[in-house]
Amino acid sequence: MSSIIYKPRKESMKLIKKGKPNDIKIGILMPIPYNAAINSLFFQTAYEYINDLEGVIAYRYVYNIRDDVLEALDAEININNLDAILISMSFELDYIYVARILDKINLLHRHKGFKKPILVAGGIAVTANPLPLADIVDVVVIGEVDEILRDMIYVVGDNEPLKYLETFNCVSISPFKDKAKRCFVKDLNRALHAVKQFFPLNEEPVYGYGIRVEVSRGCPYLCAFCMEGHIQYPFRYRDMEIVWKIIEKGLESYMSKRVIFYSLAFFSIPYIDRFLNKLIEHSIEASIPSLRVDQVTKERLNVIKKLGQKTINASS
Which residues belong to any copy of the Radical SAM domain (predicted)? Predict the structure, then answer.
C-alpha cells in the first residue's frame, strides 16, 4: 500500500478553492484519524483562515493509524510540492506517529535538511518539549500561533524562508538551541476561531455533531498534573457577546443546533451560567467539558440535563 493516499470525505462546509500555479501551498497535518482530527480547533481554524488569505491554498492530511497511511483529504497532489506543512501535536505520543509518517514519505528533517516543504510543528506537547523533534521537523512554534500565523504563511512562500522565520520571537529552528519566547494572545477576543467548520455527512465525529467553540484558554488553578493549564497560562476567556456571535454564525450552516464547548475551567467564566440559560431559551443543545467537583451544584446539573447532556466528567 502507498504511504499516502487520496481519500476525500463526504463533507459539509468543505472549502473549494481552485488556486493558481504560483499560490503558496500549505499542508495541515494531524497525526490522528479523521474522526478525531475534525475535533481540533487548530485543524478547523487553520484550514478556514489560510484559505481566506490571498494567494494561498491549504490542503488537509490525517493519519490512519490502523492502516498506517497518510490520507489526503482535498487533492491528489505531490506533497513535495508544498511550501510548508503545519503539524499540530497535543501529546508526546504524536511525536512517534509524526516521525513514522515523515519517514515513510521521505520528509524527515534529518534526511531532507531544510529543503521545502518546511515542516513546522506546534501544539501543547511541542511547547512543553520540542527537543525530541530536532531530527524530525525543521521549525517549532512555542505557544499560540494566532498572532504570527498570517506572516508565517507568507514567509514560507519565500525562496529563503528560514532567514525570515528565525526573526519570529516564538519560532525556533532545528536543532532548537536558541531560546524562543512563548507566544500567547493576551485578548482572547482577538484570537482566531473557525466559524465555517467542516464536518462529515456519513462519519460521526468523536464528540458527535455540533459546532466546536473555544470559550477560554488556560486555567486559574494550575493543577500539578495538568500540562495544558500551565502551557496556556494565564486564564483568559472570550466575551459573552463574541461567543454568541461565533455560535450564531456557525449554526447558520450546521446540520444540528448543538454546541461543543472547549474550556479547561468552564464554570470559572463569570457569565457562563447566564449563557447556558440563553442557549436553553434558544433551544440549542450543548456538550459541557470536564468539570471541577467543587463547582458542581444541583442547579447546574439541571441546566446541563436541559442542554441534552447525559453524562459528565468531573475531577478534583
Answer: 45-157
